[in-house]
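Hi F.,

I've been meaning to write this up properly since the lab meeting, where we talked about keeping a consistent format for the predictions we share between groups. The idea is simple: the sequence comes first, exactly as it goes in, then the structure tokens exactly as they come out, then a line or two of notes. No screenshots and no reformatting. I'm using this chain as the first example so we have something concrete to point to.
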Amino acid sequence: MKRPYPDAEQVPSLWFPLVKRFYQTHYPSGKPNKADPIWVLRNHKNAIVCSLRLKQIAEYQLLTAMVTEPSHRNMGLGTHLINNLYSVLSDRPTYCFAFTHLVPFYHANHFTTISIEMLPAELKNRFQAYTAQGRDLTPMRYILR
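Output, unedited:
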């Protein structure tokens, strides 16, 4: 039986224009950066259907800009992508600032809600700046249980 989506793959620099267009179309505030690893799932036509960025900050990484193409949402692709990256996410302390309505999704995918005080200083300042802009975010940390 053929799986509907292949394993996650890290985006080579050659693909960056495709990733940038994907984000511009589906999540304009999730600006990709060539300096950070970006991971994607592609469909059978090689189109990107799900993506996330791992922003590298000091010795930490921040999972950010996770987005699924709207017609492919609620199909388990976000879970598939995160599960494919367990070794990458476990390699160094990984955090995310989840939109509060997405906390149950992240809890189901090995992230634990933490207090702001538990964030490293480099991330705490960023979190406070984002929430000061009115974003409803919850700090979380990836812990494979």
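Notes:
The radius of gyration is 15 Å.
The first strand starts at residue 9 and ends at 10.

If this format works for you, I'll send the rest the same way.

G.
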